[in-house]
Amino acid sequence: MAEAHQAVAFQFTVTPDGIDLRMSHEALKQIYLSGVYSWKKKFIRFKNGIITGVYPASPSSWLIVVVGVMSTMYAKIDPSLGIIAKINRTLDTTGYMSNQTQNIVSGVLFGTGLWVALIVTMRYSLKMLLSYHGWMFSEHGKITTGTKFWMALVKLFSRRKPMLYSFQTSLPRLPVPAVKDTVNRYLESVRPLMDDEKFKRMEGLAKDFAFNLGPRLQWYLKLKSWWATNYVSDWWEEYIYLRGREPIMVNSNYFAMDFLSLYPTTLQAARAGNVIHAILLYRKKLDRQEIKPILLLGSTVPLCSAQWERMFNTSRIPGEESDTLQHVKDSKHIVVYHKGRYFKVWLYHDGRLLRPREIEQQIQRILDDDSEPQPGEEKLAALTAGDRVPWAKARQAYFSRGKNKQSLDAVEKAAFFVTLDDIEQGYRKEDPVGSLDAYAKSLIHGRCYDRWFDKTFTLIIFKNGRMGLNAEHSWADAPIVGHLWEHVMATEYLELGYSVDGHCKGETNPNIPLPTKLQWEIPEECQEVIEKSLSTAIALADDVDFCSFYFDTFGKGLIKKAKTSPDAFVQLSLQLAHYRDMGKFSLTYEASMTRLFREGRTETVRSCTVESSQFVRAMEDPTESTENKLKLFRLAAAKHQHLYRLAMTGAGIDRHLFCLYVVSKYLAVDSPFLKEVEPWRLSTSQTPQQYIDLKKNPEMLSCGGGFGPVADDGYGVSYMILGENSIHFHVSSKVSCSETDSHRFGENIQKAMVDIMGLFNLSKNCTK
Questions:
Q1: Residue 473 annotated among the catalytic residues of the structure
Q2: Could you tell me which residues come within 8 angstroms of residue 179 by beta carbon, excluding any fewer than 6 positions away?
Q3: Cα torsion through 741, 745, 748, 754, rounded to 10
Q4: CATH code of the domain occupying 249-545
Q5: 547-653+666-759, CATH topology level
Q6: Rounded CA gap, 211 and 180, in Å?
Q7: Which is catalytic among the residues 133, 277, 338, 473?
Q8: Tens digit of pLDDT for each residue in 173-184?
Q9: Residues 446-469: pLDDT tens digits?
């Protein structure tokens, strides 16, 4: 086979006359170009490391400082207050330098030290400035004089064009709230969920904890916060994600959808070609730190970028007690799954990235391959969908040597994973609800064996050219994946484009070696483990009910005219809908971010408050006046915004309590208060729109993404506010729970949205 010959740099044959050595010039050329590419990448990383390492200064500022010091020395002025003279005397004892050389070396050493001191001072000053969060609590749309002055100082210290990781060392550490403050906020959050008797009991447990065990646990937490970069994130990653022994499919992984009604092409291979190329362009920018850090408040306040570090070349590795995340610095291939076969596809040729048309060619070769799966190969990925312990044991027993290890390494060390699905999915106008529901279920679990759920993300390309992502959760949160996804969709549609016949632009290249089919030797014992994992996964997948719908009665534009935060409006609508659906209030989780701090991830906003419950009850009381309902709505919305701001600025409840609980386990002490765990029966999350401008390109409406229910008797709700006029919702629940119904709850959400907007005089604009 031609590709086999190209893969070997030289061949030799032993003959009676000696050794006949034959060189493959093409293979040697590819090896040379691969080496050049690797060294270029190392140099770029080294250069960017220096630029980031000296931020907010620049490498060239070293020369300016040293020249300045040397100039003052030659002008007979000592800028060092005697330090240069001391360095000179020290150098004089060596006896190896002339007086002139000693003066130059002394000046350079002092200038370098002064430069480093200036960098440390600037960095510390910027960190102190970024520790101020008073701007978040100002009235929306109004910036005080003090905040303007503060913004000017922040921009002064960060005026250089920052790279992705430039701000990392200047970000403040996540503060540890006072135990009493956290306990008081907790009691306030559970008040609407408990009757007087239960609340009185909880109040007693909380106060006892705050005065006795709490301070002891807090001391250890303070110690960790001084030593570690972030006192929450490592424990959060380990105990919430990596130590979980249940399936990560549905329970942890989440998904992202394609455009709603835009069809760039209907050719599966072509869509894969452009999208894979767009993802690789994003990875190239990421490697070079050319992705701009996300800035808030008029491009002033940076968010932490640490979660981008493991986006590519990463896989979750199963363990019996805890999983780990395996990350390699670089990967030059992807693995593609199609009809039960795994293919390794190289991403570079002639020392460059494959072009979209060339990737399409490689994907088409896989689609045209009619070979049969090897025994056990077709459903192998079901191991990643089932319980973690059987997968960990199977990996150790059957995939730690030989062909299986080589093939598994190819999967786990791939840049990312691609599934070429042989079914059609996506939004259909003739069946909007059913098509979106099926689309969501296909993305979150598929057939339970055709997505590699341990990879950071699996790109799924359907037969009709629609696409989506399934993302693993431990390495990063949804906004990070959303940033990648929006960039990819924008690059594909606005920059790469397609030819008239639907193919990627450009020419094919017959010299590119064929994709390599991975080889497996899976024994029957392992196949039995695969089948058991598949049975577990199928039972879980069949129990998931989804309702995905596009709400376009009104959107952010009309909500803002009502002088209300769009997120608070949606959250209060969810509270009203949930009360109508279940007849009671439930503990509600809304994800907020703490990326104003270094290595920050998320915090919980407890959206069910005393104020929101009062508003909901008023809405259900026909005797209440519209004026009073509006008043209660304003109070509830303001409370929600305040809680959101507290969560973002490190004053949330749940991460602090979580870490106190972990410390109590390390110390082997029991706390009745910390054991009072209530399930999140309503778990919500907003997917932010970060990159696509719908005003310029209204056709690029996305369906957002979603996740499975957190509680067996609860709902998972993800929503994306799309431009000014629409919101997309994804509602999930368990089929096995008789109390929940995703479609019923979806209808309640839409009705609640319209009912609340009807309180305002803007109600005439609520219908189309």
A1: yes
A2: 209, 210, 214, 215, 217, 218, 660
A3: -150
A4: 3.30.559.70
A5: Chloramphenicol Acetyltransferase (3.30.559)
A6: 8
A7: 473
A8: 999 999 999 999
A9: 999 999 999 999 999 999 999 999
